[in-house]
Amino acid sequence: MTTNISFLLNGDQISYEIKDHWTLLHLLREEMGLIGTKEGCGNGECGACTVIVDKLAVNSCLYLAIDADKKTIETIEGLASTDGTLHPLQQSFVDNGGIQCGFCTPGMIMSSKALLDENPNAGREEIKHALAGNICRCTGYIQIFESVEAAKKMGGQNE
Amino acid sequence: MKPFKYLSPTTVEEAISFYGQHSETAKYVAGGTDVIVKVKEGWIEPDFLISLKKITELSDLHKNEATGELSIGAAVTHATLEKSLMIRNEYPIIYDAVSNIGSLQIRNVGTIGGNLINAVPSADGAIPMIALDGVVLLHGPDGERSCAVKDLFVSPYKTILKPGEILKKITIPPQRPHTGSAYIKFGRRAAMELPLIGIGVLLTVEDDLETCTKARICLGVAAPTPMRAFEAEKLLVGKKINEDILRQAGETAADESKVRDSVRGKAWHRKEMIRVQVRRMGLACMEIIWNNN
Ligand SMILES: Cc1cc2nc3c(=O)[nH]c(=O)nc-3n(C[C@H](O)[C@H](O)[C@H](O)COP(=O)(O)OP(=O)(O)OC[C@H]3O[C@@H](n4cnc5c(N)ncnc54)[C@H](O)[C@@H]3O)c2cc1C
Ligand code: FES
Ligand code: FES
């Protein structure tokens, strides 16, 4: 019950022998050691595990790794440049109080990135709609929405 | 999670033959937002998951402009429906219902077919399909058959599907001019919550833009399966639609409903919401009809 899959992960071509029942979250965190993506509920309810698959935000805790075959995956690890410069969304979350404990942040930022990549002019209602599946127990959300809005002005849709 | 083998057929026939080989030890999966949760929790323990994702015909969404018939493949995701301008403009009741299912992450993978076959009393996707007189096409080991969406549901979590049968698509017959439709998922908040009650209304009026020729009032979480409030519908047909008659329809629909107390809400509250929301959704239909004229 193992299968070979290949996919593009943060720009790198990857081949991996996976077990059919692995979730994408398991593959990323436990097998590949990419622990930026978080596991909160494991049931699709909190959004902490959000990654982008072929431009769409998905819960990696419910997404099977085998379905990532031939797809393009983006995780929080792929956002900052190699010289350490943060992605506009990351910088904006830092600057605008969008991060407190930080547990929800990778998921929040990946959901926000999927939104701004598709709709660079998203307004407050669209931001709320896109982030409704990301739970934050710290910030009260306002600073998060403000962070996304500020990132928009910085060109948050750019790679 | 208990290990399983994942099979990815590319045709409906191949999927059915896989099911034939493995029968009860196999389970179909589309988006997996329901199946994967159940496997993770250990509620089901399939040895084989037969994925429907690679069967391209199941992801087809199109309207036949010549006949006016809309065809929605079972594996079309909620997000695809939500983003389609054709759906938003011509079938607002579908847009209303799918755009508040779970979260965007859930809608990006969850499918309309999975929503129907899940058959939870609160399935948001079922109400618009019933209100639009949708027909499902099923394909199984014994061939194809079809039935009205409203007759698909037997009891909570149970549909008429026979072992191995696949839901291929939902067909929506052409709509008449001067038709408006609207759905509301009523709960504490729309996102990430199953509705306390789901209310869908569809109205068609004559050229005078007030006399009702067709009415559909469909309720979710109001009975063990999604239901139509036939008496309330009858009350509207032939009448001029105004707030007063819609209020009466709301009363009748509330009386017809078989709401119950549950952890998420009390029966009296659900009835009250049916009364109020049938009227409001009726008025929303009329707004749409007037705006489109
Ligand atoms: C966090 C969360 C929030 C949710 N919120 C909502 C909500 O607000 N409203 C709501 O209605 N639902 C909600 N759901 C439930 C679920 O996401 C939806 O019902 C979704 O549409 C299921 O589709 P799927 O493709 O993921 O189904 P799957 O999990 O792939 O399948 C569901 C069932 O249908 C069967 N099946 C799927 N496709 C077919 C087919 N073509 N033919 C035959 N059988 C088939 C499967 O065998 C399985 O029994 C939520 C789920 C989660 C995890
Ligand atoms: S861990 Fe995936 S949604 Fe909570
Ligand atoms: S910053 Fe702590 S959960 Fe969001």
CATH class of the largest domain in chain A: Alpha Beta
Number of helices of chain A: 5
The ligands bound in this entry are: flavin-adenine dinucleotide, FE2/S2 (inorganic) cluster
Oligomer category: heterodimer
- Could you list the spans of chain A in which at least 5 consecutive residues all have pLDDT below 50? none
Protein structure class of chain A: alpha+beta
Kindly provide the name of the CATH class of the largest domain in chain B: Alpha Beta
Could you tell me the strand content of chain A as a percent range? 15-25%
Tell me, what's the shape of chain A? globular
Estimated helix fraction of chain A: 25-40%
The biggest beta sheet of chain A is recorded as: 5 strands, mixed
Mass-distribution shape of chain B: globular
Sequence of strands across the biggest β-sheet of chain A: 2-1-5-3-4
Count of domains of chain A: 2
Largest sheet of chain B: 5 strands, antiparallel
User: Hey, which two chains have the biggest interface?
Assistant: A-B, 28 and 27 residues
- N-C termini distance of chain A: 36 Å
User: Reading side by side through the largest sheet of chain B, how are the strands ordered?
Assistant: 4-5-10-6-7
User: How many domain modules of chain B?
Assistant: 3
> Superfamily at the CATH H level of the largest domain in chain A?
Beta-grasp domain
Derived from helix and strand composition plus strand pairing, the structural class of chain B reads alpha+beta
